[in-house]
Amino acid sequence: MDYDVLVVGSGIGGMESSIKLADMGYQVLLVEKEASVGGRMILLSKVFPTLDCASCISGPKMSTTINHPNIKTLAYSEVENISRNADGRFNVRVREKAKFVDWAACTGCDVCQTECSVAVPDQFNADLAPRRAAYIAFPQAVPKKAVLDRAGTSPCIAACPAGIKAHGYVSLTRTGKYEEAFQLNLDATPLVGTLGRSCYAPCENGCTRGQVEGTVPIRMIKRFVADQHYAEADGPGVTAAAATGKSVAIIGSGPAGVTAAWQLARLGHKVTIHEAQATAGGHLRHGIPAFRLPKDVVDADLANLDALGVEIICNSPVSDLQALKDSGYDAVILATGASREAAWTVPGAEAATVVSGLAFLKDAAASQAARLDGKRVVVIGGDVVAMNAARTALRLGASEATVVAEAAKPGALACNEVEYTEAVAEGVKVILGTSVAEISAGSAATLHCVPAAESTAAPAEAEDSESEEGAASAAAATSAPAAAASTLAADVVISCPGLEPDDSLFAELAGVGNKTRIAANRRSLQTKAKWLFAAGDAASGLSTITRAVGSGRRAAHMVDRFLNGQPLDGFELDSKLSTTKHRDVLGRHSRITHRDPVTGAVNLVTNPTDFSEIEAPLSEDQAHTGSGSCLDCGVCSECQECAKKCPAFAIDMSQRDKLTDVEVGAVVVSTGHKLFAADLKPEYGFGTYPNVITAMQMDRLLAPTRPFNTVLRPGDGKVPDRIAYISCTGSRDKTVGNPLCSKFCCMYSIKQNQLIMGALPLADVTMHYMDMRAAGKRYEEFYVQARDMGAEYIKGRVAKITEEPNGDLLVRYEDIDNGGGIVEASYDLVVLAVGIQPNLDVEKLFADTPLGLDEYYYVAEPSAELSPGQTNIPGVFVAGTSAGAKDIVDTILHAGAAVAQVAAHLEHHHFAAEEALV
Amino acid sequence: MTDKELTPDTPAEDRKIGVYICHCGGNISDYVDVEAVRDALVDEPGVVVSTTELFACSDGTQHDMIDAIKEKGLDGLVVASCSPKLHQVTFRNVAKRAGMNPYAYTQANVREQASWAHQHDREGATEKVIGLVRSAVAKTRLSDELEPLRFDTVQRSLVIGGGIAGLRAAIGLADIGLEAVVVEKAPEVGGWIGRLGATFPSDASGKEQIASMMAQIKDRRDITVYTNAELTSKAGTFGNYTVGITLHREGGDKELSLDVGSIIVATGFDSYNPDEGEYGYGMDGVVTLPEFKEMIDAAPAVGRLSYQGRPVRSVAYIYCVGSRQEAGGNEYCSKYCCTAAIHSSLLVGKVDPSIRQYHLYRDIRAYGKFELEYGASRGAGSTYVKFADDAPPTVEKLPKGGLGVTVTDLLTTSHEVTIPVDLVVLVTGMVPRENKSLIDLLKLPLGTDGFFNEIHPKLRPVETVVDGVMIAGCCQAPRTAAESVQAGLAAVAQSAALLKKGYAELEPLVALVDPEKCVGSGECLSVCPYESITMIEWDGRKVASVDPSTCKGCGGCVPLCGVDAIDLLGYTDAQMRAAIEELISVEGPIVEAVKEPVS
N or C: which end of chain A has fewer CB within 10 A? Predict the structure, then answer.
């Protein structure tokens, strides 16, 4: 047997049970679901009728509990299942929840909490104030250790192929930490400005806010932080680790190559990039036109590499990989991209009027393209190169630019939907479902067009594709599939047959995989030449910049492991939790404030004439509003601020839940209670009127660790003069299904009445009650004391509360003492004395033998009178409010009674075992 | 740890004391320059560690302290933080865990005594803290290695009172291997409950409950019940008391002496006895609740309820008789009576549903699940009439026979009504039992309400200031039978927590007489509230001697000794003098102000 007793829940009942049993010499396992022991009592201000500070009398109990040699406390853990064995002992499965903090290292210093960029309602402050996603339960927590609240991986992060913590930089931007947001991007790639413009933002498709009013403008926020950084700072603000003495060659300076270089250089490796072209950047430089990605942005991003000492050698084509390796590199990453145009076999394609799309864009990017004034340009192909070429042609003066594509509908085009719609908006004509069969040369070319094979074979489907709707309306006027053979005249023909990796370099050494990709392990990106790794489009075929960045990052990580002699499998590059579901996020928020979506402004004019950037940046306000609408899906945004600032290096995002099975001799259920959800009495307006609060909230306002350092009303922060208490909220009330009296509300109200009169000497305190149930030692005297202090007690129920324009509350009540009339009174603040509700979690504890509950769902005590605390299961006992309404002293006595019988049970089994031996 | 033995004579500079100054979040550091305090302590003789901590009590800092004690060989520890009430035990345990003598730990209370007290005087508060910490260091320098007093515990408990709480406690004790001895003053066990029929809320018969427990007890060798018996003497200390029991037997009293580890007092209550004329008490037809309950228990299951041979057709219950009285009377609420009266009315309804029942109350305190009884009673036809606290009902004989209860009903028209009834039931509360000899014997303090007082009404409800003496049931405060059983069992748990591990430890912070110096005046004997000092023969003369097992270390005897022969371990005269010297040697306005005689 691992422990004599399992105690579930470490409120005052659980602590009392554990300490008493441990003092008797039993080994106790105490499991607490929160990060601190103490339950609800430690959160109270003072306790009745002694007016002791709750922390001061509960704190030492917590300390005794956690330091007791016979008690093993598992905080932040949950009992998953308890089953009773044939011998009467219990098998218990405990889930130690991942804390994402190494508690052995954590000193409880608070830094993570201070740095955290995510605020969520603080359950330890009755939701009155926010806490952080990284938090220490409360100031007197025992153990005083931080946990990271993670509900999963936020969908935006899960969606990012580049491994960028989208949620993280959004939350950092929201808190004004622009540079930190920029740096978080730099953790993945130096191409922050570039991705801020040219990423297709799969993160935004995952955004939960997108399910409400519209996505958080995640990409635009990235651009915002990049612009902020580059406007103010020289260099990335990052230094490399100490030199490792290893050197790596990277072939190609596109997104994959520079990302790999950046990652490796940060780790201290010496990196040299060999670029065949005269300038660095690959497609970023040559393929994407400046109006979409200004070249100074690319320059700024690439300059980040300089700061880490990465050398980019341009005009340096590599022709022999082995020779390159042998020239002094420990590893080589091939990141040559999809740099080759696919073979194109249209008759007449060799005509002088036909130019390559890629070459055209490269010339245009280098400002070396000829003007096309008055010329009719036809672009053949439906990919991103085609769209960019057509739009570039317009800017070079073409009288018309027509795209001829085989795709039957816009959604089937090989480009992104935005590229298509923007092209159309700028005046590009797109002819869909059409193939060019032949080009006849002449002073002007004639294109012989036929319906594309696929469009005839598969006629356009009904418009059921959601991505099409926006595009279709804009495109209707300009795009018409050729119904039959036709011709098209063109002064300039631009061919865009699609891009593919150039396999000539690696075919021999590494082999060619699918299509012309390099043969490499998909996960490790290692080729059969162990020192040769591949990254980006060379490994994946034509893809997106963001995927190439992710691939470069992966390759760099693998190369680093390779250089360190570590295995390339058996680990996760980005250790992710399961992705948070939209419905869980929306369900978690009690209320979601409406936010108008922030969208970028794109300046689209017909027949544009210049290459200036068409998309306007977000203003700081927009960046704030946009990032402020984030719903914090995963709770923790993974912004890494805690990890970076933790002086004890205790943050460990790789932690996972741990399941442990233990055997125990007996069980004490002390899972406590819930409080009545006051919004179930809509006539009292809780949740609607901000100045109607619950008594638990008032206790927090009065506690020494209170959130606002005074008693104020939440609506406007005014210090209240007239405070009303409404007793029996959710108790003795069949309309909410609870005819029971909650026992402690009268007394805690009287306590609060006295404390308020102490804290706000000028305030009037009135309580509307049914019966004043001051039943207990010194309780009646305590009630009399409150009356003597000036609190007013009015017998009669409250029917309704309405809010006045100034936030005051009109309470309509029955005044029994004075003739029973219906009276209205105005108050500044109304406190609802909410009652107790059963904690239904107990039901889930026992899988095989159901734990008996009474008709009100409290744990049943079949022989409550002579054997209080015994349940229907032999060896299982209940202590405290799990079994019904109790105040603290009742709980102490009940726990004492339970543990006396726990000990009897254990002794009985002990004796039985000894007899068996004899 | 150092190898050499430490004594108060170890030179100050040879001590290795660690000083930890706590921020207490901001509780201290917001008002005190803790860095200045640290710096002021760095060069104190014997101080080898002086550091500040955000929360000295945090687990992390505790571990740091343990490391420092082990690595630097600390032989003294001072934490400047909150009140020792809060964390003295915490830090003593830190010392213990690290292998340092826990009594070389001193807590400087700089939060309650400085930061909280001088929130508007940072300089002054800082100066005072420096003084307090230096003072604590001075005391620590002179600390001696003390060992707790350890002794075996007797695996037997005494239960005084054979009511439901006492009997259940006895069974509970025996169930966990502690022999139980029950002493009951009356000829029969069972107390109040043993005389009752159906009790609330389950209708279980009180008589049967007691009978079933007695049947169990009869067969057990580990429980002995003495009736007609009284506790007449008590000596020793918790874990090992010697008690004398007098058995009143035909043919003369017998004396019995027993060793017991703990004592559970479950002497119960008396029912309030109304004065003649109080709500008509003494008139024909006016009875108390216990009297009424006897009538109900004697009534047939279904049939007629009769009073002195006359059928009862209507009953008025007057609540809060003897409870919630004006200052000078019984101001407390008796807690059980509302539900008891409601339950009685339900029983009456079962006997004869046609009986009209009126409940004249102030507040119905049917707390928790008892609310269901209240609802059932209303459902069964009982009428509830609320009267104002200052306008109690009156009872008079009606001219045409029967009784008239006159009351102003707040729930309806607030008009005065006179209700004619056959019977008036005074819902009487509980009063503390007359028990002077036991109270004197056990030295148990009473509350203002006359019931026994616990150590702490919230967290330690069954413990008393006398270690090893527990109180359970209605002798502590009015409550229900089930609640008394819970308290009885809680006292069992507390007894087991004290006794089960087989030994107990006492703080060694006790008075010690130096027989060389003692002149045998015997003056100290007269002030010791615990009778711990006796005169013994020593070296041919009479000197005082303190029994460390009963001495509480209150220090009352120390100043009384004219020849300074008594010292209090852990707080020796030398330590206190050194502490005071340090405190007043700090330079600054506060100390100056204190030194300045008040003009």
Answer: C
> Cβ contact (<8 Å) for B485 and A780?
no
Neighbouring CB atoms inside 10 A of A636's CB total: 28
Confidence label for B414 from pLDDT (cuts 50, 70 and 90): confident
User: Burial code of B132-142, b = ≥16 C-beta within 10 A, e = fewer?
Assistant: bbbbbbbbbbb
Nearest CA in chain B to A896: B490
Nearest-CB residue to A896 (from B323, B332, B494): B494
Nearest to A537 by CA among A562, A573, A501, A567: A501
- The first and second tokens of residue B381, run together, are 């036809």
Mark whether B376 and B306 lie in a shared domain: yes
Contact predicate B321/B274, CB 8 Å: yes
Enclosing H/E stretch for A31 = strand A28-31
Same domain flag for B525 and B474: no
- Does B535 map to a domain? yes
Q: Which of residues 879-898 of A touch B (CB under 8 A)?
A: 884-886, 888-890, 892-897
CATH number at residue B342: 3.50.50.60
Q: State yes or no: pLDDT of A465 exceeds 50.
A: no
Contact with chain B for residue A716, Cβ under 8 A: no
The answer to whether the beta carbons of residues A770 and B394 sit under 8 Å apart is: no
User: Residue B37 falls within a domain, yes or no?
Assistant: yes
Do B357 and B469 lie in a common domain? no
Q: Quick one: B93 and B181 in the same domain?
A: no
For A:51-90, CB contacts with B below 8 A are 52, 56-57, 59-61, 63-64, 66-67
pTM: 0.88
- Tokens of residue B220, six digits: 């057990």
**What confidence tier does A715 reach under pLDDT thresholds 50, 70, 90?**
very high
Q: Provide the H-helix boundaries in A487-634.
A: 537-540, 545-563, 582-588, 620-628
Token pair recorded at residue A530 = 């162990």
Min distance A779 CA to chain B CA atoms (Å): 8
Do residues A428 and A477 lie in contact, with contact meaning Cβ atoms separated by under 8 Å?
no
Interface contacts (A, B; CB < 8 Å): 221
Assess if residue B321 is contained within a domain: yes
Task: Give yes or no for residue B3 having a pLDDT over 60.
Answer: no
pLDDT for A468: 40
Q: What is the ipTM of this complex?
A: 0.86
Residues composing chain A: 918
Greater confidence (B58 vs A329) lies with A329
Give me the residues paired with residue A768 across strands. A726, A794
Rounded Cα–Cα distance for residues B102 and B148 (Å): 10
Q: CA A78 to CA A153: how far, in whole Å?
A: 21
- Selecting from A24, A775, A866 the residue whose C-beta is nearest the C-beta of B500 gives A24
Q: Which distant-in-sequence residues (6+ apart) come within 8 Å of A415 by Cβ?
A: A382, A383, A384, A386, A387
User: What are the chain A neighbours of B490 within 8 Å (beta carbons)?
Assistant: 892-893, 895-897, 900
Distance between CA A421 and CA A405 in Å, rounded? 15
Q: Say yes or no: B409 and B525 in one domain.
A: no
